[in-house]
Amino acid sequence: MGFLPVDDQLEIISKGTEEVIPLQDLRHKLEFSIKNNKPLVVKLGCDPSRPDLHIGHSVVLQKLRDFQDLGHQAILVIGDFTAMIGDPSERNKTRPQLTLEEAKANAESYIEQSKVILDVKTIKVLFNSTWLNKMNFSDVIKMSSKYTVARMIERDDFTKRFESEIPISMHEFLYPLAQAMDSVEIKSDVELGGTDQKFNLLVGRDIQREYGQEPQSIITLPLLEGTDGVEKMSKSYDNYIALDDSPQDMYGKLMSINDSMIAKYYELTVFADKEKVLAVENQLKDSSINPRDIKRDLAKDLVERYYDADRALEAEQAFDQIFVKKSIPDNIPVFKTESDTTILEVLLSENLIDSKAEGKRLIRQNAVKIDGEVCSEPGYVIGKGCGELVIKVGKRRFLKILG
Length: 403
Known about the structure:
CATH class of the largest domain: Alpha Beta
CATH architecture of the largest domain: 3-Layer(aba) Sandwich
């Protein structure tokens, strides 16, 4: 297929980005690509430290998809080897290391979930253990000799830890170098990453140059705050919307975001164009418009993006039934009691909680109700002859008990 003109490609590539470094280099690469009818090699490195993806990850995944749609070769580099080191980016302590087996298991889930955004027909998925595992100690010394400690300590998180006398392990210095070797291995033309990855991406440029390659252009994407509007979206902060959340959960979680985040979510989660984002910003300034109504449209757009229009409408109706009409949704799961059992055991067996510890925490927070009454006792027993009860966990999880 033919490539779009350079300016048209740059308009698409630049949309929603934080920085393109250096922009002129990327222009030259695109010109060369068109002249020689050769797609650029565009790299996204993924550190599978956790097995789950959320819509915060979709920001950079969508940019990789943009390159795919423009006809370039997208490569997803799974950092199964580098996950054993642990990315020190934005860390105030050494990150726990994973085994190769743990990293590979997480990677499988990562790849499967990313299929909702990426074109699986053209994506190349590579594991950096393929080449990094083959490096011997001489190779590591050669690689390390190409970067100075002074340059490494310029990294903001290393500087803060050094000044605060928080230990920095030697292996952490190897992480950006190992990531850079990924770029050398695949001869990357462009590398994508969040703003927190800027240092690592710049090291990739330097190391490519040291190995006689033309340095890659780098594109950084903004980080998305979670539903709390404060911390970066993360499962650790429980402020995330997972890519594989149900339509109802996806809709409900988005409706909980702060009004100040609506425009940013329009830009970074459903990838609205500038005109739409500007229109939303103007609506938010209009005191006659309830921000809740704008969020409802945003929530439907998000669900439709990952499912379809019918599922988005169903999610909206379920939300209205629970929160607007204050009623119990139809078709909630049913648990039949065969013997006396505690509420924690019931919730755990029906996957309404991930662990008993989580159940106890929710009970302490008065987030578990039985027939509308707060349950304050983790050892509460649900008897075999209890009749019909409805348990509500948090804002969106329901379970009907038949005893």
